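Supplementary Methods, section 5.1.

A reviewer requested that the exact input to the structure prediction be made available. We therefore reproduce it here, unchanged from the version used in the analyses.
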Amino acid sequence: MARTILNWLAILAVLLSAGTADAQIRARSAQDRNQVATLVYSSSEAAASFGRQASAELFRLRGVIDERDRKIVELNARLSSKTASAASQKATIAELERLLDEAAREKDEFVALLAKQDQDFERERQVLLEVGNSMLETPDGAEALRLFNLGGKENWAATKAILARKTAIARRNEAVMYSQAVERGLETTASAISKWEQVVLQTPTMADLMQLAGLYQDAGQSNKIPALVTRMEQIAANDFERIEVMQTKARFAKLRGDLQDSFAANKEVVRLAELFRNANPVPAAGNLLAVTRYELAIAAIQVQDAKTAKAQIDLGLAAIRAGLGQDPANVTLQQEAIRGEVLSAAAQLFLDIQTIEGARKLSGRTGQANSFVEPIGRARAMALANSENPYLLGFLEGLICGTSGFLLDLAPDAAGPMVDECVASNRTRAEKDPTSLERLRNYVDALDKSVQLSAKRGQWLDADRTVTTAVRTARDALALNPALPGPRMILAKMLHYQAQVDAHLLRRDRVMPALDEAIAMLDDLVRADPGDIQLSRTLSDALWTAADFNQIVGGVPASTPYLQRGLALSRKRAALPGAIWSDQLVLINHVTTMATMGIAGTSPAEALAELDRMERSGLVAPEGQAQFAQIRASMIALRDARAAGARP
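The structure derived from this sequence is encoded token-by-token as follows.
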């Protein structure tokens, strides 16, 4: 999403001069110009920009360029033939020179066209042009560039060997090449970080600092981001860069588990974007504001503020739809409209479950499921119609992974294929770069959904295989940065799942070791952040599982400690500002269960008081009245029986 936000800052493109690098590339020979042009044209940044702007004209131009490159390969093969005559060789050389000149010009024009509407890419383009031109200054650099452009593992290994000699090759050039190799699946995030850390030891640009911050985020090394943010603040020169700095602050807060700080930082991003839009009343500024609202909405959902989330998404979606009305062929706007619809459906779902009235509506779930399925269908059709555009495929995969979790409850049958797609795509990414915490975490999240789906289907052996992989991957993720709360939360959740699966498979000796490890982790997290309701709910779930299991194997005395801890947690959570009706239900469940079992700390009278409070609040659905009447009657009978037994 951060990359999407930057797309809409094309209005600032005039602030970035293309003069020096463009002049250098024009002064080179056709062969050299094509090498530099190829570096930019085939970069991951150009591919992403193409995906954001994909149009029939851009597809046509790319087809022309790719066809010319095929002809160049054929001519090079002809030149290497020993059977060709001297005259034939001379004609081939002349033809090759002409094609190289055309190829370089067309690639330059293609990426310049992308940059014209994409300020973020324009900055990246300039960096790549500078890298390419400076590498041509030495024979080593020129050979490294040629090998890199050829692609493949063997050529990358040869490129690295040259780069390691650093013969007049600047550190930034090497770092850029490593970042490109990471995107191609040829190198790890850790290796790219080591190169960029050398770059920022000197006099870094904002682009250098942003690149390293992004790599730190991927690798889970969030403790290193604050120092970069401080340096960014010192050199931020315009509104665009100030928004970038605030976005980085928001992402860092989320990484370290401080969702309230992330929420506050995203509010500030929206405020800055509003000021920018007011000062620059152009479509790009309005679209920028719209997608910053999306990010704020996601942060709001994470702190249980569903009203703010829904309001911000709907404001952003309305603006995107208005822009799409003016520019219906704009692929990026089409994607953002779909993304907004999915986010709006998610926010509405969260808003519904805040109240008993809203939750009642979920009894007819078909409509809610379709709110996710229908936009994804349009995204899938868009990706299939533009199969040459990898960016659209990535967009589709993100939607599928993001929404399959909702559909697990709303429409499990529809969720199944989507969960499988999500697992497959994230497995591939994680295997390519096991040093990326972001990729490992996304893979575990996908496996989480798969475990839930297997459990719903009663396929416990499938769930066991999946959760074993999930626990192992979660441990790998935690090992990358043991201090981060996020990976600990994920591992604890997977261990809880493992315990539940073991219980169903009657492997009783394995249940409590997994649960005890999960509960210990969650205890630490809740102590560090007692106001995080989601953490509290996760710990409460684990304590309930432990209580249920211990009651089976050891009776009431064995389950009592877990129930008592759960009750204390439920009381605290029900009093928190973000608590909802379901938190009150959990508290009643704790109180009535413990009162029935005769566990110290609760009584039938307290249970009846909680039932009265819930009914007065209107939290008891009509269809639940009979059940509540039974609970009330049992508590009254228990109270009276105990009172009678206490009489002399």
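The chain has a mean pLDDT of 82. These observations are discussed further in the main text.
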